[in-house]
Write a structure and sequence with these properties.
Order of helices and strands: HHH
Number of helices: 3
Number of strands: 0
Shape: flat
Structural class: mainly alpha
Helix content: over 70%
């Protein structure tokens, strides 16, 4: 497969997974908070070993850590409200 075709395939797979998030969120009986917590835990469990193996883990400055924590809180609030809206619709 050409690099262009491979890239298109990856984009299509990502779109399917993003589209399934709302559908699966609607079908599950879990609360939005449980869904967001579980998604975050699974993402951390997958990404942390990948970061360690790639050698990209380093100590963060206080400002970097605070910026990342703030971005994480905003993202968690986004997913919380998204799944709440899905459940209410």
């Amino acid at each position: 497969m050409t690099p262009h075709g491979s890239g298109l395939l990856r984009i299509h797979v990502a779109v399917v997974f993003f589209g399934l998030a709302g559908l699966l969120g609607k079908l599950t009986t879990a609360t939005p908070a449980t869904i967001v917590f579980t998604r975050t835990l699974l993402a951390a469990a997958a990404l942390w070993p990948a970061a360690i193996l790639s050698g990209r883990v380093r100590a963060l400055a206080r400002t970097e850590a605070l910026a990342i924590a703030a971005a994480g809180l905003v993202l968690a609030a986004h997913w919380q409200t998204f799944f709440l809206a899905v459940k209410l619709s």
